[in-house]
């Protein structure tokens, strides 16, 4: 049996970004696992969830934006959006350009995301409830700074997807 790596860096370690990233990798993976476990019980596949979170974040999108976000062919993105539309999670909205298809969440789509978010938050709250209050405060401060940095850095599409 191997000894677990320490999760807390010593004061000098924080200056070594590569080492800090390695230390953060394990707890970030655990957080992603807690989060994803509840998305796995979603009535729609993960790729469709990514589209729904994108549309929620940007209010309205066109199919080209969906293809860009997924790094997919336009035809594949169009079919995916069609499936979401047929299940009443997305709806078409008029666009200034008749050739463009704009999409937004339906009430049912928003309810799905709200429900998933609530389940995810309850799972996180269960873990946070048993943490030491000082550790929770430290976690909140660090995560808030991390999220702010990602938002302000002119991030790539995959960075924005992390914050959905």
Automatic annotation (TrEMBL):
| UniProt-listed SMART domains | HTH_MARR
Q: Which SUPFAM superfamilies match?
A: Winged helix' DNA-binding domain
Instruction: Enumerate the Pfam families for this protein.
Output: MarR_2 (PF12802)
Q: Which organism is it from?
A: Nonomuraea soli
Q: Which biological process, per GO, is one annotated for this protein?
A: response to stress
Which Gene3D superfamilies does the protein's record reference?
A: Winged helix-like DNA-binding domain superfamily/Winged helix DNA-binding domain
Regions crossing the membrane: none
- Signal peptide start and end residues: none
The lineage, from the top, is: Bacteria, Bacillati, Actinomycetota, Actinomycetes, Streptosporangiales
- Is Cytoplasm included in the keywords of this UniProt record? no
Q: Name one GO molecular function term.
A: DNA-binding transcription factor activity
Q: Ribosomal protein among the record's keywords?
A: no
Q: Which UniProt keywords apply?
A: DNA-binding
> What protein is this chain from?
DNA-binding MarR family transcriptional regulator
Q: Where is the HTH marR-type domain?
A: 1-148
Q: Matching InterPro entries, A to Z?
A: HTH_MarR-typ, MarR/SlyA-like, WH-like_DNA-bd_sf, WH_DNA-bd_sf
